[in-house]
Amino acid sequence: MAKKPHENQKTQETIVRFDNVSFEWGVNKPILDGVSFTVRRGMKFTLMGQNGAGKSTIFGLISGSYTPESGIINVVKGVSIASARQVIPRDQLNLSVREFFEKCFKHKVYDIDPKIDDVLEVVNLKGHTKVHDKKINTFSGGQQARLLLASALIQDPDLLLLDEPTNNLDKAGIAHLTNFLIDYKKTVIVISHDAKFLNAFTQAVLYLDVYTKKIEQYIGNYFNVVKDITARVEKENMKNAQLQKEIQAKKDQANVFAYKGGRLRLVAKRMREKAEELEEEIVEVRKEDRAIRPFTIPSQPDLIGEILNISSFTTMKNGKVVKHKTKISLNKNTHLLLQGPNGIGKTILLERLASGHADGEKVKEGIRIGYYRQDFSTLNFEDTVYQSLSSAMLAGGERLDEERMRSVAAGFLVTGEFICTRIGDLSEGQKGLVAFARLVLQKPGLLILDEPTNHINFRHLPVIAEALNKYTGAMILVSHVPEFVKQIRIDEVLDLEK
């Protein structure tokens, strides 16, 4: 059973301490409110919380990228920290591998190539002889995820911060990373929505509550902590329900006595005071993460005949392009699963299909394509959410109906000031929800989805799977999450490796 730290205190040295820390973005956007917790040397933590709660912000505060509004963050002198971010910054995609790793250090590192070779071996990304000069943007999404991890490991930090490290990784990559973390001797904090992955190595959990802006700290593996939190919430809800019953009974009695007048009014007053005392006993229950509302992605109307034909495709093998012949025909209500290991060329094929420039591919004229990219590059990061959704609605052939647009947005937890936020200022999970809202408004005839579970809160995944399962246009899906794929109707499979 998971326990709070004071019940099962560890003896390792505390290397990071948050003491009553508060932080906010801009004006009236609080992220943390009086947060206190400790990180002990050699332990492996999971940092949990809803999309947009501020998990990545906590990493920024630990590493010193951000400064708190109030409170103290104490990192023990001499403790080195390295972060593996969720995505490679856009301004680094044109760097060579060598330049990318050189940026990991404050000072110039001489003869860095052997160090790069060693760390690429650790993340199971073995390159050919010219890998050091290869551009980052030529690597697949899964290979870039391994480069991000390697960029942190090459620094040999005392504290390793991993932000969604399994995104884009294939089964072999996740297994390799899991074994690495199990054997890892230093301190690590991981943000991830992959429960099975987290449970393999987690010793403690930091839960960031998006409503209270507080951190709850637990000792125990991931599954036990989630089980304990759920049980506590149920117990508190039951206690509150009983108190509400008693409060209502006291108020009803008070109303009866007050109506009768005379000395009974004093009795009525005592009844109301008792009701107020009971109201103070109501426990503030931690609200569970909300899931998005069930939704439908409408397909383009009047879809008739063949929507997409693929007669050939190319893959990457040992750094060489290999051409293959195939016979794939997608009509209305046909779902294709595209499979293959990291680096074989899945994302490149999807990009070419979406642009209409793939060899051996033909999309029927007039077909609208809805493209969910794993790096969200189909979104304009300078647009506000309102502008992004408005343009999607117009692209879907609808007039601008603000009431409908806001209703769709609300279903994806995009409400209030969120809708006026710049896309580039959203968390990766929030960008994913906006991307799905755009698909609903676009009404595509061909839906192309490249790793749509990346960055998405696990509570949302069954809802998304059900929407994709019911989609009636033609669909191509790439996903390395078997549990997600199992929930979706697949009519054809194209395995690029086989």
UniProtKB/TrEMBL annotation:
GO biological process: transmembrane transport
Alphabetized CDD domains for the sequence: ABC_cobalt_CbiO_domain1
Domain of life the protein comes from: Bacteria
InterPro entries given in the database record: AAA+_ATPase, ABC_transporter-like_ATP-bd, ABC_transporter-like_CS, ABC_transpr_CbiO/EcfA_su, ABCF, P-loop_NTPase
Ranges of residues in domain ABC transporter: 16-235
Coiled coil: 226-288
GO molecular function: ATP binding; ATP hydrolysis activity
Keywords attached to this entry: ATP-binding, Coiled coil, Nucleotide-binding, Repeat, Transport
GO CC annotation: membrane
SMART domains: AAA
Record-linked PANTHER family: ATP-BINDING CASSETTE SUB-FAMILY F MEMBER 1, ATP-BINDING TRANSPORT PROTEIN-RELATED
Listed name of the protein: ABC transporter domain-containing protein
